[in-house]
Amino acid sequence: MSADRETMAVYEARAQDYAQAFGKDHKANPALIAFVAALPRDSLVLDLGCGPGAWARAMLDMGLRVEAVDASAAMVAEAARVPGLVVRQATFDEIGAEARYDGIWANFSLLHAPRAAMPAHLAALCRALKPGGLLHIGLKAGQGEARDALGRFYTYWEVADLAALLESLDMTWGHLRQGADKGLDGAVAPWFTLTARKT
Fold first, then answer.
1. Cα angle at 20 between 16 and 26, to 5 degrees?
2. DSSP-assigned letters across all residues of 120-171
3. Does this model's pTM top 0.90?
4. Per-residue pLDDT tens for 60-86?
5. Which domain holds residue 123?
6. CA-closest candidate to residue 151, choices 20, 5, 51
7. Is 177 helix (H, G, I), strand (E, B) or coil?
8. CATH number at residue 46
């Protein structure tokens, strides 16, 4: 299954707009601070769906080694401007590493995957983590699947449903955070983030 064409078209056309709107310095973000603190020193992290690379830049600045992927060529081009960042174009289906990463940062990227595909994506991420590795995931809260005003595809998740998938992979989850923010489409939407540890 490839990335949703309409969603990718939005990111291809508006990569610079996205970078300007969401490319701030994230080093003071509580979720990122907790994620970095929970990892061994000099950990290797995968930034899944890295966008313009702002989160990856923060992780590099905080002492992590970072590999980044995004399905959008325009986003990869933006992220490639981050000094020291290893970045390549790839879809969720192309994550095939095994026991490579100490951590995976999937911050509001997997929300573009259809619900039916999520179990396979999470299983691949679990395989890509080293034993004891840490997954951060951010999703929009709610139910169902829909497109936003820009045409991007979203799957909305309840915490309990995501938690059940993680538990089925023998991952222990916690550090739940919830909020609501304005997106690229201008709409305010509820969200949650959590982390899951591979056993």
1. 125
2. HHHHHHHHHEEEEEEEEEEEEBSSSEEE-TT--EEE-B-HHHHHHHHHHTTE
3. yes
4. 999 999 999 999 999 999 999 999 999
5. 5-198
6. 5
7. strand
8. 3.40.50.150
